[in-house]
Amino acid sequence: MTDPSNRRFDYIIVGAGTAGCVLANRLSQDPGKRVLLLEAGKKDNYFWIDIPVGYLYTIGNPRTDWCFETEAETGLNGRSIGYARGKVLGGCSSINAMIYMRGQQADYDHWADLGNRGWGWKDVLPVFRRSESYQHGADDFHGANGELRVEERRVNWEILDAWRDAAEECGIPKIDEFNRGDNFGNAYFQMNQRNGKRWSAVRAFLDPIKARSNLTILTEASVLKICFDDNEIEPTATGVMVRQGDHEQLFEANNEVILAAGAIASPQLLQLSGIGVSETLYKHDIKPLIELPGVGKNLQDHLQIRTIYSVDNTITLNQRSRTPWGIALMVLEYFLHKTGPLTMPPSQLGAFAKTDSNQPTANIEWHVQPLSLDKFGSPLHRYNAITPSVCNVHPTSRGQVTLRNQDPNSAPLIQPNYLSTEEDRAVAVAGLKFTREIMASPALVPFTPQELKPGAHLTTDVELIHAAGDLGTTIFHPVGTCKMGKDPMAVVDDRLRVHGVKSLRVVDASIMPTITSGNTNAPTVMIAEKGAEFINNQYRN
């Protein structure tokens, strides 16, 4: 690791989440390039990070989560909800659900159709494969020689097997896996684990290369702003101002500053640095540098509607964790065999389907959990229950991330605008009705499921959309706030360079023009791989 007292580097990467870890790995492969990786959070040495079920203790925990909250949302009946973002090396990959989900072929072909060269499915599939270490070995869709481990579940639940049967009875066929371009069907999720332990971006991409002499990693290092030269026509990013404790210092970049801080922090930092809507910046006494109206706009997220059904004649995690003896047995199984409930992500089983025949691809996804609770961080319920959460994977609602004030330490205003379009409200109602159809199927009759939330007494569309507003919550997939493209609202081009300035890129989930169909961590790895390739090609000696 290089001496941080030498404050000039070839590349400065802001954010050591999923994208930042990949970038640090790939850009430091050239021993002639000095790389600085900055993380505002702490090191990832918290006990619960590596244990998969530890998400229950990391989400909502200020040790590992920024604990953001949205503004009051009209679509959520005036509620403000928690908006977890990783506050630790590895970012959200250190606290997320570990689900490996690429999205669908149509997602990426749409990006290419928008004019983004090299972002179609045929272009990105080899990039996904390159990063992957797939449990079952390489094939046309998977790679075996990458760093990102992908494995099958290590615990089984009778009620989930029955739910798969029920979904099939409702026209959602069983498939072996997702991630082959068309996700229609139901399958158990594959996840980023190795031998029953979370396989975060740190474990995959950073741990193997921490000893590189040309890589410097600083934690608890908050970037206050991006610095630019005095060129008023096309400014060049020259470095970043960083605060560690009470000390501020300037780090300079020979080649580029790269924002990999995610869909919330990357647009916030651009705005703090004078890039965004001039009128808004003036309100916060920030001198505008470049007018880019799309900064912070186009926020997209998957809103999950968490239905809860009590069940009988089977065992769920609620029951297994009800007594100290049950908990002790689960702990013993985990530490002896690395199997059992402690290896669980929050959701093990998934399904994709269309809400109507006019949809070109599957537009809703279920995350089915053999447990129930009021919210993450709350105790499990004392009764046996499952939670089939349904979400719209192609939302048309668009939100924004804007500055609260000019203080870099203040959380920005997060306004997803969930359920703000008629189409999204219709899909929410259809998803709830489809969930009821599955839960009423013959395969689940032996378990006598009873709808607790939203409640079987709610039957009209008006009642169900109100229920969606009461139950809806983020599934932690914010994207799109520095979108890629050529249109007036685009922030970066298809090589991820920020429009209107030099030597500045954004390489994280914020560059997605439209959200992918499903969980967003794997696409973020792919984005970072491509970003690193663009950078290495440009500066290769």
Overview of the molecule:
Helix content is 26%, strand content 20%. The protein contains 14 helices and 25 strands. With 541 residues, it is an alpha/beta fold.
In round numbers, the mean pLDDT is 96
Total domains:
2
Distance between the termini: 22 Å
CATH architecture of the largest domain: 3-Layer(bba) Sandwich
Number of E-state strands: 25
User: What is the number of helices?
Assistant: 14
Under CATH, the topology of the largest domain is which? FAD/NAD(P)-binding domain
Low-confidence stretches: none
- CATH homologous superfamily heading of the largest domain: FAD/NAD(P)-binding domain
What top-tier CATH class of the largest domain fits best?
Alpha Beta
Strand content: 15-25%
Shape: globular
Topology:
Elements: E1 8-14, H1 18-27, E2 35-38, H2 47-50, H3 55-58, E3 68-69, E4 82-83, H4 105-113, H5 121-131, E5 132-134, E6 148-150, H6 158-169, E7 185-188, E8 193-194, E9 197-198, H7 201-206, E10 215-218, E11 222-228, E12 237-244, E13 247-259, H8 262-272, E14 275-276, H9 278-283, E15 290-291, E16 303-306, E17 308-310, H10 317-320, H11 324-337, E18 349-353, E19 364-369, E20 385-392, E21 400-402, E22 413-415, H12 422-439, E23 450-453, H13 461-471, E24 472-474, E25 504-506, H14 521-539
Parallel strand pairs: 1-2, 1-13, 2-10, 5-6, 13-25, 14-15
Antiparallel strand pairs: 3-4, 7-18, 8-9, 11-12, 12-13, 16-20, 16-24, 17-20, 17-23, 18-19, 19-20, 21-22
Helix pairs in contact: 1-14, 5-14, 12-13
